[in-house]
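Weekly modeling sync, notes
Attendees: S.R. (lead), two postdocs, one rotation student

Agenda item 3: backlog of single-chain predictions. S.R. asked that every request posted to the team notebook include the full sequence so nobody has to chase files. The rotation student volunteered to paste the first one in as an example of the format we agreed on. Action items at the bottom.

Example entry:
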Amino acid sequence: MLQQRSSGILAHLSSLPGPYGIGDLDTACFFLDFLEQAGQSYWQFLPTGIGDEVFGNSPYMSLSAYAGSPLFISPDLLFEKGLLDRDDLVGKPYFSEYAVDYPHVTDFKNRLLARAFQKFASSRLSEEDFRQFCHDHVWLDDFALFMSLREKFGFKPWYEWPRPVARHEAKSLKPAVEELAERVRYHKFVQFIFFGQWRRMRQAAQQKGIRLIGDIPIYVGLDSADVWANQSCFDLDKTTLLPRHVAGVPPDYFSETGQRWGNPLYLWEVGAKPNKPLYEWWRQRFLHISRMVDVVRVDHFRGFASYWRIPAAEKTAVQGRWVKGPGHFFFEQVKDATGKVEIIAEDLGLITPDVEELRDTLGLPGMKILQFAFDSDQENNYLPHNFPTTNCVVYTGTHDNDTTIGWYFDRQVPQVSKDRARRYANCDGHMIHRDFIRMAFASVAALAIVPLQDVLGFGSDCRMNRPSTLAGNWAWRCASRFLSPEIIHYLRDEALFYGRQRSMLPRTGDK
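Predicted structure, as returned to the notebook:
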């Protein structure tokens, strides 16, 4: 339960400034400096897993629920560790400050990591730490083998591999482990580096008093190490190995035909009894993220109460139906793991009394989105005067929304909604993004989170994601010059004025 008033910024690692085409775990430390100077207490980011080009590099459709993306590994920190030479970095290609070119960045980072692995193998630097890391991460063997087999089979999805391997049969996997030993070791090495750099970043956050908010998507991608290695946990056809039903949501604010995500659904019960391997998988998942962050946003929390089940043959989400989820029983089964991390329930969309009851009984804060507050009347639940409790998190918008400037100038947003927003904020709309930030900071919500794009007053061209689309998402980057002293002072003053600034030690030059 959230108690102390505070505020923070939503910005994915990929959006941070940096010289190598994408934010990384070194530039993340500079962003922590920015947050500290701006009087912020929280940094929220999106899932940090390995995106798939098939799904537009979406962080919500990762190849693993556990593994970290190699794209976030810092080349400069590899150089500091002696795993790269200066020449490896001097000839880097041109990268845009404003958008991530995923194929370009991926090729560059993979070449550097291959070079780093060669130096690691020849020098045996940190060999003992590497062995301990492999021992401590139980998911790593399946993940590294999965990635190696994907390469061997031309990056086809696992359900198109030779059938015994696709079924994850131990007898068939043993020869593959021996044949692909070097590639398996490489993928383990990449994760060893990622989590070593992550540990450094988190220690920096702790020293500065910045709390990290991570993100757990409730579902995982079909073509993932998780589904391949844990097929008994998912609703798959035993012959084709494809989902019988898939996840999504019914028609809503974002789409008239709903959203057909395509993720396989969980088998919460087998033979009318709880599916123990599935609950253990979830328990390990929460334990894993608790070692990475302080707070976790559970995406699509409502799926634990009831979820939208769509027949796999359907092209849209319209013909789905609601199915009861595991509810309280789930959280009882994994409470030793969830007790190690605070949870924010993403309770957006069509929320029914059973979802509210589950959230409130667990004492979890929900989410309030100001862009949704002006599309009806004075009874709208997202209006700050209707927040029923301080135990909630208020956002101007999320990664799925347009920026606030974009929302305000969008011709599809009814003029009456914009009129209501101006009246509510007592403003003329000239600085609507700051008016929304002021509303968020002034509200009773214990925590206010603002997307970095809204802090900077950017428009629709800087939007992070357009739900139900694949092209052009997840690419926005913030150039370093935008994180200016003026922005730092603005955020710090607002946090102080509205009682959201954390206790800070005086810095050199402060009066």
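Discussion: group reviewed the output briefly. Residues 504-511 have pLDDT under 50 and may be disordered.
Action items: rotation student to repeat for the remaining queue; S.R. to check formatting next week.
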